[in-house]
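Title: Prediction job returns without error message
Component: structure pipeline
Severity: low
Priority: P3
Assignee: unassigned

Description:
Job completed but the reporter wants confirmation the result is attached to the right record. Sequence as submitted:
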Amino acid sequence: MSSAAPVASPAERPSASPRRKSRPSLTRRSGLQLLAGLLVAAGIPVIATVRILDANAVRNERARADATLSTELQQASDELRNLSDNAAEGVDDLANSRPLQRAFLTNDRAAVLRIARSTPNAVFYLRGQRISGSIPQVPLKRATSLQLNGKVVGRVVATIGFDRHLLRRLSKASGLAREDRLIAVRAGVVIGSGQRLHVSGRTITLNGDRYRSWVVPVPNAPRTKLVALRSEAVISAAVRPYQHRVMYAAFGSFGLLLLVGLLFGGPILRTLGDFRRVASQATTDSLTGLANRWTFDEELALEWRRAERVGDPLALILLDIDNFKTINDTQGHQAGDEVLRVVGEVLATSVRQVDLAARYGGEEFAVIVPETDLGGAIDLAERLRTALESEEIELQNGTRLSVTASFGAAVKGDLPGGEKLVAAADERLYEAKRAGKNQVAPEPARKKRTASKPAERRRRPSSAKR
């Protein structure tokens, strides 16, 4: 039993310091940080919505551009097909005419030349030799021929050259919008300018500018295509007013969130603080700050399963404050509470981070010691006993006293469950009590204590004087 130290005289007592205020459940700084986090979390959906709406607007505008370009290109293709069909009908009629057939059959070169002079955009061949007309660099060709005894004696080829005149005619026929362009491309090179295209899906880069495109091949003109273009800058400009409206709405929404946060931030933070306090009270002992009995039971079951799974040792220490009832009876329950707080601080500062110190009930405490055998648990219990014995507690009335505790240690071993481990540690605890208290059971292998020389004690003021 620990005896109370003599009461110090008024002259010897240190001046009483004001009682330390309890720490708020949620500090102002953490509250502001939490409020900022809530605003950021609320702003993320707003930003995500803005980005989604912007992307949808651009995608829809590109779809409208594709539809327009497709329609324009279809009309241009129809006009080009009409020109080709008309040219083909012209050469067919010419090939079926008697003067040309007679000139081909009689090999009358002069007659063929006379007919050719009245037929522009046509090339005439006699016995395999071109005698009139020229073929454009990039032509659309329609041909007809006259055969005699299975041999071609003459051929007429109608040609349509892809020049600026033709493209202007096709653009006019297509109803091309002012911001759109129509070009002809052969083997990746723009006809007429020699510029090379860089194609990525429906996006074409031409001379450093990006365009949305629609492409159709040209019949009877190998590797030649008609391409309708609309600049990406034009598409972006069409979308920009909508994007501005979405941005204004986003700013308004975020401003409303900020206003709501400022108006209701205090109640929200107080509610969160109360929730945090309730959650803490559910797992910790309010007097000592250690884990409570519920947390101890949960952690012991968890560590037991882990030890079973990996095969590590598991130890448990139980301790009971000696003569605690006498302290309550002689010094009052406030003094008893102060003793419990001091014991909790000693345990909290003396165990490892992986250990769990808990208030088991009343004046009894427990320490779960994972990955530790019986010798290690006994050594830890002896260190805790020595640390507690060296503490000197100053009560609010100036009385100084010291306390001791009895310790019992046990290990998992072949025990069937956690409750048996608690029972084994409890049995060792009462062995220490029966052996005279302020002891560890089983007794440490090398116990260096002398009864004649008491341990040096550190003076610990009560919480009321901190």
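Comment from assignee: result matches the submitted record. The CA atoms of residues 179 and 230 lie 6 Å apart.
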